[in-house]
Design goal:
Blueprint lengths: L25 H10 L1 E5 L2 E7 L8 E7 L7 H18 L1 H4 L7 E7 L7 H18 L5
Parallel strand pairs: 3-4
Antiparallel strand pairs: 1-2, 2-4
Helix pairs in contact: 2-4
């Protein structure tokens, strides 16, 4: 009796968050914070920049939570996990459009309280939708 493999991809979407999608390059992060544009989708602050990324991925993203607001690492990690999960499930909003330029994004949690996943996900969806409208090839 063989079990059929479960399909995690619906409509040819990949719900993964791989290493190549993580923003790790210090050079790109420095450029992002010095030249990037930002907007707030409370409780998230999103900084983005169209730039050349060191990998072939269309989008690279990083997440951060303030140590000043959340003293315990357990709390910061919980919020970062929730932000990563919200991005992972909704990244198709960004990657569906065929754009020539690569996009670097950094998401910072600016809330003062630990919020539930649904609130963070709604904010992330709003932010990704706004980024997808911005993610148009410049002419």
């Amino acid at each position: 009796m063989e079990k059929s493999p479960q399909k995690f991809e619906m409509h040819n979407r990949s719900y993964t968050f791989k290493k190549k999608e993580k923003l790790c390059s210090k050079k790109v992060i420095d450029q992002l914070f010095s030249e990037g544009t930002s907007f707030i989708s409370f409780p998230l602050k999103v900084i983005y920049l169209h730039c050349e990324l060191p990998v072939k991925s269309k989008v690279q993203i990083g997440f951060s939570v303030s140590k000043k607001s959340f003293k315990k690492a357990v709390q910061r990690n919980l919020l970062k996990r929730r932000m990563r999960e919200a991005y992972r499930l909704n990244k198709h909003l960004l990657t569906e459009k065929e754009a020539e330029k690569q996009l670097a994004i950094f998401v910072i949690f600016i809330g003062k309280k630990i919020l539930d996943y649904n609130t963070i996900e709604q904010s992330m969806i709003k932010a990704m939708t706004k980024c997808s409208k911005i993610n148009l090839p410049e002419k």
